[in-house]
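Sample intake sheet
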Amino acid sequence: MAGYAQANTFFGVDLDLLNVGVEVRVNDIPIYEDKKSGQLTVELPCPDSIINDINSLSVIAILPKIGKTYAEDYVPGAYVSAKLFRQENDGKKEYLTKFVLKLDADGVLSPVDTEVESIQKPMLERIENKAAKFTVYAKIESPFPVWAWQSGLDIEANSENFDGLYLVYKEIHGALASNDQSSLKKLYSQRAKEIATAYNLNDEAAGHEKISTGKDAVNVDLQLLNLVSQSKLELQVFAGGKLARVASSTNVQPIGFIQKGTRIFHLHKYMFYKNEKNQWVMIR
């Protein structure tokens, strides 16, 4: 396989769908979620999820949401297409693995054999309510260093980890509430460093700029919402037990702002790993 060692290599997922709700994951790390009915064509950045060796691309496809309720069936013509790509120096995209899901004779989404490319046997998992998870694989020689989370401690979905990680969310919420920019820079530091690496930025400061560290706290048009009660949340573990977040059963995390006047929500999304000192560290 050809070697790629350029720091400005870009990775992403081209997603195309019609009337299907989806969650997209790269290496079991969520990079996008949209439950609404409709048509969508979008490019999803994912360089910070790429690892050296075998990488997976998964889509969890569900019945779409129409208004406030979910559809009972997929409409004719519903489909999902997902392609993981590499792009060098803003040049032509090289597709590394891909698939298409379309409705079969039973009215459920199934892979189209002629549209599947995978270095390993694809995995299809049927889920309740006509949902499905489909995964394909690609071998990638990554231009990035080993991410910190890859050597982190294994995370178990237990109450101790749930309680501990929720306390970190409380610390972040407190720093946002008090506009403590120094604390926010420290809390977001490892995340900013790796984002800078993934997107070929100059340094940690540029990483902070890209992820807008602390900017919502100083925006007078935004109001910080109360931290969601832990009783309404759960611990969610990803990346083979290396990453975790706290969120509701509908994947909404407990920190967010609301735009004054328009009432538009600005929900903050995080992912954490546990370092060798058994400490939670924000990494995404």
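Comment: The chain has a mean pLDDT of 96. The helical segments are 159-177, 181-187, 189-198, 204-210.
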